[in-house]
Amino acid sequence: AQSVSQHNHHVILSEAASLELGCNYSYGGTVNLFWYVQYPGQHLQLLLKYFSGDPLVKGIKGFEAEFIKSKFSFNLRKPSVQWSDTAEYFCAVSLDNYGQNFVFGPGTRLSVLP
Amino acid sequence: ETGVTQTPRHLVMGMTNKKSLKCEQHLGHNAMYWYKQSAKKPLELMFVYSLEERVENNSVPSRFSPECPNSSHLFLHLHTLQPEDSALYLCASSQDLGRTCTFGPGTRLTVL
After folding, report:
1. How far is A40 from chain B (nearest CA, A)?
2. A97 to chain B nearest CA, in Å?
3. Cβ contact (<8 Å) for B105 and A43?
4. CA dihedral B32, B36, B37, B43 (to 10 degrees)
């Protein structure tokens, strides 16, 4: 079965620090990759997605992610975090036309100190 | 309304009660999902519907019973739940299976 792992359970950064959250998945075929964010008290929102093409994907709020197929990774990055980025971040993997494999990682909680 | 809506937002029920959660999507999507979000556990996919047909039941206990009467509505019928079923239940939809999911705000369920 497909699985998704996220390297860090909780990351604490100061404002303006750079961020990289790790995500690895286990499936060897063609996948769709996502990062979702859940701000405190709010519902899950799509941050960015990768289906095909350029492996460097840009999302909302200055986030980007790089798909490295050889490493089965899809790490999320932001050069300079803000206090408002405090949230939980989830990596997810799916297969086209295969809803039962829309699998989420356990999440990484990001706390940004002002 | 736009997006994915869920009602009720909060629900407290006893173990012998029967209740239902409702989800409605206003996006014209073909697939709908139920997820369970518990503290300190990954999001668990419970049920998947595509064009109103159930695609997957990930070994969910029978005390959870989904219903998808049309492509815009999804229900989760609850019966004789256990306290460990207390969680946030999220509904999502996508244009096609495996594509970008849009999530609803969830129903916070507490089973006493």
Report:
1. 12
2. 4
3. yes
4. -70
Q: How far apart are CA A86 and CA A1, in angstroms?
A: 31
Closest CA to B21 of B2, B39, B35, B40: B35
pLDDT tens track for B7-30: 999 999 998 889 999 999 999 999
- The tokens for A11 are 């990351």
Phi, psi values for residue A44, rounded to 5°: -60, 135
CB contact at 8 A, B101 and A90: no
Structure token digits, residue B55: 């695609």
Judging contacts by C-beta atoms under 8 Å, the chain B residues touching residue A60 are: none
CB contact at 8 A, A64 and A78: yes
What are A112's two structure tokens?
Answer: 């940004």
Three-state secondary structure call for residue B37: strand
- Three-point CA angle B29, A95, B67, nearest 5°: 45
A37 to chain B: closest CA residue: B103
Q: Which of B38, B99, B103 to mutate to test the interface with A (most CBs of A within 10 A)?
A: B99
What is the tens place of the pLDDT at every residue in A73-95? 999 999 999 999 999 999 999 87
